[in-house]
Structures are given as C-alpha cells and as structure tokens.
Amino acid sequence: MHKRKTIRQLQFKLFLSVLLGCLPFAAQAAAEPGKMPGIRVKHVYKDAVYLEAGSSSGLSEGQRLLIKRGSAETDGKDAATVAEIEIESVTPTSAVGRVVASSDEILPGDTAVLPAGDPDLLRQETSAREIQKYAQVVSFTDGIPPEQEIRESIPKAPLPEINRIQARIGLDYGGLWDSNLDNNSWQFGYTLRLDAQRLGGTHWSISGYHRGRFLSRTNERKEETLTDLMNRTYNFSIKYDNPGSRWTMGAGRLYVPWASSLSTIDGFYLGRRFGKNTVGVFGGSTPNPSSWNYDPDRQLAGAFVNFDYGNFENWRLSSTSGVALSWIHWQPDRQFGFFENGIFYKHYLSIFSNVEADLVADSQNPDGNKVTLSRSYFTLRVQPHKAISFDINENYFRSIPSFDPRLIGTGLVDQFLFQGLSGGVRLELPARVSVYGSAGQSSRTGDARAAWNYLGGASIADILHSGIRAEYKYSRFDGSFGKGNYQTVGVSRLLGEGFRFEVQGGRQALDSAYTAQTSAWFVNGNVDWYLGSSYFMGFGTTVYRGDVQSYNQYFMNFGYRFDNRRRGHD
C-alpha cells in the first residue's frame, strides 16, 4: 500500500508540473493567435547580430530567422524583411547570429522572427511547434525505481538543429566573350551551397558555397573577370564546436573566429578553451582578393590567445593577441604580431582596434631587428538612438594595400580606401530611407599636403511595399595605392518566396601606378527562381568595359534543393 501511495503521489506531482509547464504556451497561444514571436535586435557589430532572447525562449544553434524592420508585435505582414541570420551561439537569455543575406543594414530595435512561406525556411517554425507538443521534462534526483520508470516514460523533443541539412546542388554552364581578343570561351561545372548542422548527432557542421568546373575551354585572357573575383569571397568550411568540449576546430575557406582581421584563409584553425578564454593555432593560404594584403601565393601560419569577459547584456571585452609567419611561394615574407581588441556596451557603444606590427631587419644595424607598425585600424561607434549613429575611424598602412583594384566599384573594399582620420554619420529617416556619409583627410608618409576623402550614399528599403531595395553610393578617395572616385547603384530583392534578383552597376576612375585599369564601368545581374519545393533555376550576366579588360560574361544553372527537416521528408 505504501508503495502504491508513493507512486500516486509522484504521478500527481508529475501531472501538476506538466500542467504548470504548459501554462505559458497556452497563455501565449490565447493572447496572440496565429502570430509569430518577435525578438528584439539589441546590438549589431559587422556581421554579428545580438538578440535579446536565448535558449529559454526556444532559440538554438543553426536556427535561421528573418530580420524585419518593425515592432515585435507585428505578424510579419506590415514589416519589411531586411535580412536573414543564422544563430551561431546561444545562452539562456541571449543569442548571436551571423548575417547570411541582407537587403539593408540591420539596426538595433529591428525584430527577429521565425520565417514563414519559404519551404527552405518553414522547418524552423515547424520545429518550434513540434517542441511545444512535448510535456515539460521533470528532473528527479533520487534513484527510486518507480520514479525512474515515470521519468523514462515521458517523451523528449529532439533538438531541431541535430542532423539538419539544407543544400542546393546544381549544374552550371557559363560563357565569356572577350571583345579585346575577339574570342569566346565556356565552362561546364557545378555549384554547391550547403548548410548541414550537428551531423550524425555530433557537433560537426558543414556550411558554405563552392563553385567548381568539370570541363572548360578558355581563351588567351589570363586575368580573372570581376565575377570570378567576387566568387572567391565566399566561404566553405567544416567546423567542430562542442560547448561541452575544450576543443574547437575548423577547416576550409574560413575566418579564424578570434582574429577576423586576418581575413579569409584556405586552411584550418584549432583551439583549446580554458573557461571563456581560448588558445589556438592556424595556417593556410590567403585567397580573398578583397583583403588588404591579398596575394594568392602567400602562405600563413601562427598562434593566438583570446580573452573574453562580460556578457552581451552589459559590458563585454574581447581581446586577441597572436604571432604569425608568412611566405610567398614558400620564400620568407613577414614575421608579425597581431592584436585585436573590442569593448562593447549593449548597442550604444562599440570600440574596436586591430594592430599588426612586423619584426624587420634594422637598416642601420644589420645585426639587429626592430618592430615596425605595419597596419592599424581603430573605430569608435556611438548610437544614442536607433535612428542615428556616429563613428570615428583611423586607418593606417605602412605598405601599399594589395587588394584587387577592380573591386573598388563594388563596395567590397571601402574600408581600405580611406587612410588617416575620418568621421561619419548614419541617419534613418521615415519611409525606410537611410542616408549616410563620411569624410576625412588622408595622412601618408611623404605627402606634401593632406588630401580629402569623401563617401556618401542613400538607400530606400521596401519600395512601395514590394520588398525591393535601392541604393546609390559615391566615393572620392586618395590613398597610397592611388586616387580616384567611384559611383554605384544597386537594386535588389534578396529575400522572398520563390524569386530573388540583384542588379548592380558602377563606374570607377583610378589613377594608380599599380594597375593599368584606370577607368571601367560594369553591370552585374543575377536572378534566382524556386521551381516548386525541390528545384531552382538561375541566370546571371556581367558586362564589363575597361582600359584593359572588355567582355561579356554569363552563366546559367539548374539544380535540386532540399531540406531533410521539410514536411514529408522527415
């Protein structure tokens, strides 16, 4: 009798706990029928977006959310979608995501919501609903058999990120007509876009984009096209990140997470955690043509230590120090140290600094060496209100930046055009209009007088509630690599159900001793169609006219897209 009474008491306690655990979900469903929960964006730094909710609100690593320009109470119909993010790190009360696509700059106060409509994204909302079907799991501390039997009988929801695989695999055909050589070329290849999280229930993940060739017939032109250069700014990597393990690693085309100022490497990193601090090594080549010290034949290896203090709800400090060696064709190139530090306070204040110092031979003392500052970047950003922000920047290069100058007109290398001290402001106006600008004087060794640099632009998001975004930008610059100006205009609709497009046109003029391409104009266009839930089709073209290169390039692709968490495919 006593044993039966004990079991009944445990069952009653369990029922009561389950009932209480389900009350918040019932209250939310009753208060907001049919509405998606909104999560406020509290801080944005580069491609990192910090949210005011975490695992206690149902967020998990690998989850994808849409960023909308509207209040948290909106149902998503009246708010414009400005970006898509993927959650990379979660705590009980906060989360950090990286931007995977955007049609406008993400601002503090924007709202993150679960996507709806797109078959590739619908699984997130479906997974959230599936989790709510399970009763709250009650933990027992004693090893009494009846209690163990009751605990094992309770169903447990699977984590939505485990074994989640989204992919686009397609065949790609492209052609090029070079007017200077009066010659055609073509290539037949493949495209792969993959997002596979927690493979086999482990903490291994693979994500990124890759474009390769099966067959090609090329003309005599040896230089890459603008499209080829932009394609090499993508990342594709495999990573291991287990919160319960001291070890973390990654391999492929990637950033070193604690030292993003080193830009992309084709290689690896390996880190070991000591609490919130990390010590690690890395190595690889430098393939990104938008890097300040770009050289496709450079090899790089080094070690680092990172210290992390605070949290995203208040003050936070991140500090990385390291040393590295580089070679070009395996001939010694640089011995340098790098220091990357950031101080952040919510969304109101961010201070970031990156310094690189080389160990070089002292010309006045052949037997000795000296430490010389080779690169420094400092930025201070203050955002007193979500509608306005101010920034102060200082940029210095001892050597000539070696990014590919053909990328100037695309806006991918704006951070290297201004040298010296500059200041800027960004203002959010009604009707989703944004204006921004910056100005400063360059300071180069040997200059007789300082030269002024300017950059200004404006953008309009969600024109006539169509989801279309337009932007115009103009820049005048004078740096160690040369002087000139560029202007560009773009129209895009990067987020939507079934149809996406982007068109960008620009013109640049450059007076530089490091390139013969002094003037050029270009038009890039890309279109994507989703054919039902499983197939896609795309088309793109580039028209480029310059002093050295003059060509028309196009590509077409067709392929299969899938998500193993989509309904009907589980």
Could you explain how this protein is built, in words?
With 570 residues, the chain is mainly beta. Among the domains are: 1-30 and 117-161, no CATH class; 34-115, FlgT, C-terminal domain (Thrombin, subunit H, Beta Barrel), CATH 2.40.10.410. It is 11% helix and 54% strand. The chain contains 5 helices and 28 strands. The chain has helices spanning 2-31, 119-132, 145-152, 226-231, 414-417, and strands at 38-45, 48-51, 64-69, 80-90, 95-102, 111-113, 164-178, 183-197, 204-217, 236-241, 247-254, 265-274, 277-285, 298-310, 315-328, 331-345, 349-362, 365-385, 388-397, 420-429, 433-441, 452-460, 469-479, 482-493, 499-511, 519-531, 535-546, 550-563. The strands form 2 sheets. The chain has a 22-stranded antiparallel β-barrel. A hairpin with a 2-residue loop joins strand 1 and strand 2.
Question: What does this entry show, briefly?
Answer:
The chain has 570 residues and is mainly beta.
Sequence-ordered SSE layout with sheet pairings:
Layout (H helix, E strand, L loop, with lengths): L1 H30 L6 E8 L2 E4 L12 E6 L10 E11 L4 E8 L8 E3 L5 H14 L12 H8 L11 E15 L4 E15 L6 E14 L8 H6 L4 E6 L5 E8 L10 E10 L2 E9 L12 E13 L4 E14 L2 E15 L3 E14 L2 E21 L2 E10 L16 H4 L2 E10 L3 E9 L10 E9 L8 E11 L2 E12 L5 E13 L7 E13 L3 E12 L3 E14 L7
Antiparallel strand pairs: 1-2, 1-6, 2-5, 3-4, 3-6, 4-5, 7-8, 7-28, 8-9, 9-10, 10-11, 11-12, 12-13, 13-14, 14-15, 15-16, 16-17, 17-18, 18-19, 19-20, 20-21, 21-22, 22-23, 23-24, 24-25, 25-26, 26-27, 27-28
